Amino acid sequence: MEKMSELLEKYFRGETSLAEEKELKKYILSGNVEPEHVVYSSLFQAFDQEKNDNAVVPLKKIVSRNHMFRNNWVKIVSYSGIAAALLLALWIQRPQHSDDFAIILGNKIENQEYAQKYATAKLTKVNNVLKSSMEPLQSLNDVKRSLKPLRTMPDFKSETTE
Q1: Tens of pLDDT along 24-51?
Q2: Which of 44, 53, 73, 131 makes an SS bond possible with 28, Cβ 3.0 to 4.6 Å?
Q3: How far is 18 from 159, CA to CA, in rounded Å?
Q4: Distance, CA of 102 to CA of 116 (rounded, Å)
Q5: Residues 63, 67, 68, 73, Cα dihedral to 10°
Q6: Are the C-beta atoms of residues 25 and 49 closer than 8 Å to each other?
Q7: Strand partners for 103
Q8: pLDDT of residue 91
Q9: What are the residue ranges in the chain where pLDDT is below 70?
């Protein structure tokens, strides 16, 4: 029975082969066990009983991919509809501001008549500045017109004698 003591030590160190474990299990479960090995009989009986028990796995609900896709699609459409409704409500409730305004000297002017008069005055002033800056060009055009008859005169070349 010295052999069984060595096998038990080897078993608890995790060094036994499957054949040695079967031999050890057969010895302990046989009932003809040395008094010093009786302590291990309950351990091996528990292992044997556990081997025979069928483990009960909690059942999972198996959902098909189509069903999951449909559920996700419904969620996406629902959330999109809620978001669209919120955006629409915010857009309807937004404060109404006049889009017709002008900024004059850093001030917002919403009076259209005043803004048009101001713009007309500024454009007239720009027109006058352009007119006055174009006057020298006008005098150049006058000179150009007066020189036009000279261009029509034939060129006289002087003949050189050798």
Answers
A1: 888 888 878 888 888 878 787 877 777 7
A2: 44
A3: 133
A4: 9
A5: -170
A6: no
A7: 108
A8: 84
A9: 1, 52-65, 67, 96-99, 151, 153-162
3-state SS, the chain, equals CHHHHHHHHHHHHCCCCHHHHHHHHHHHHCCCCCHHHHHHHHHHHHHHHHHHCCCCCCCCCCCCHHHHHHHHHHHHHHHHHHHHHHHHHHHHHCCCCCCCCEEECCEEECCHHHHHHHHHHHHHHHHHHHHHHHHHHHHHHHHHHHHHHHHHCCCCCCCCCC
Q: Are strands 107-109 and 102-104 parallel, antiparallel or unpaired?
A: antiparallel
Contact (Cβ atoms closer than 8 angstroms) between residue 24 and residue 10: no
Lookup: tokens for 129:
């500045």
What is residue 120's predicted lDDT score, i.e. its pLDDT? 92
Q: What are the C-alpha distances in Å from 21 to residues 109, 146, 158?
A: 99, 129, 136
What global pTM score does this model have? 0.33
